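In this section we turn from sequence analysis to structure. A common task in structural bioinformatics is to predict how a protein folds when a small molecule is present, because the ligand can shape the pocket around it. The inputs are simple: the amino acid sequence and a SMILES string for the ligand, here pyridoxal-5'-phosphate. Study the lines below before reading on.
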Amino acid sequence: MTLAKGREFLMIPGPTNVPDEVLRAMHRPAIDIYDGALLDVTDTCLADLKTVFGTEGMPFIYAANGHGAWEAALSNTLSRGDTVLVLDSGRFARGWGEMAAKLGLEVEVLAGDWRRSVDPQAVTARLAADTAGTIKAVLVVQVDTASGVINDIPALRRAIDAAGHTALFMVDTIASLGCVPFEMDAWGVDLTVTGAQKGLMTPPGLAFVAAGTRAMAAHESADLVTFYWDWTFRQGSEHYQKYCGTPPEHLLYAFRQALDILLGEGLEAAHRRHALLAGAVRACLAVWAEGGAMEFNILDPRERSDSVTVMLTPGFDPKALKTFCQQTCGVTIGGTIGEIGGQGIRIGHMGHVNAPMVLGTLGAMELGLAALKIPHGRGGLQAAIDHLAAALG
Ligand SMILES: *Cc1c(COP(=O)(O)O)cnc(C)c1O
């Protein structure tokens, strides 16, 4: 028996739901890449990216996924043998570091904990000990999609300043931009990377990088620069140079539409929506957790992100719940990855999500918990509704 006929919900932390208007924006013939309407699409996307990043710096658009944005950031600013300090708090900063090692950089991981955000004091202590200035860049993610943590970016900036260190501060906002506040310039971030397919509601295939003054200066002497990622070439006067070849036209139209949706809602309103829906998810999961079979991966409630929630499920097989939600209810939730792979579930609540999608997902999960006889506190869905009612009433 299945109840899964009807519109499916994709509630994994990326790729996320693509709005119908965004899908429709791609349904058009290919057009000239040298002249005409596409040039305007590029210009307005670049201008709006500055707004979304909160920067007066230089934005770049790549035909790539998030890994491409990582490589663009590193290769444009660093040189073979430079040391980067990776602030570990989950899978993704580490992955960025593994890429750095392959590029010929020396990588030091500041040991972290998958259940906590990065400790600013540990960052200050490590950088203060680097009196020779060997560390050229500090790499961190704002939201780690594997652990569900949100790192305090302004606090980490202050931590770097407290050590009087000049390393470039690079932040991965792939799972957070458009979902939670981010102010590149005001927060003193030198280089920001993001991708299209999470909070930005666009099909996978576009990556975005914004470079501040210090990152642009570092680019002048970086020797890891390669032809495809090169910022200098991409600032050339011909339109095709901005993409180092054929622009991903249809994705650009999709992104243009997604920006219209996001900026039409307003960044602050989008952040508030994410906070409310995430609060509803957490209120529900906290009640279920009273049954003793599951717990939040992130221990401190203040460090739980508003774009993805990660639960450990020591009391049951997460795959059974996932399969029930998918096959019986038509709702796809995520499994855990990396060090905690197979040990829990991840719920993505980022991008194009609304109350019925979140409440429907929680309802399907609660049905799954009941049908599979998994111990859980009663009334989780009600707690989610109460949370929203209190905020909206
Ligand atoms: C998804 C994700 C990435 C990787 O992006 P891809 O598009 O899969 O290459 C990197 N960092 C974070 C925080 C992510 O959530």
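Residues 267-289 form the longest helix (23 residues). As an exercise, try to locate the residues that line the pyridoxal-5'-phosphate site and compare them with your own expectations.
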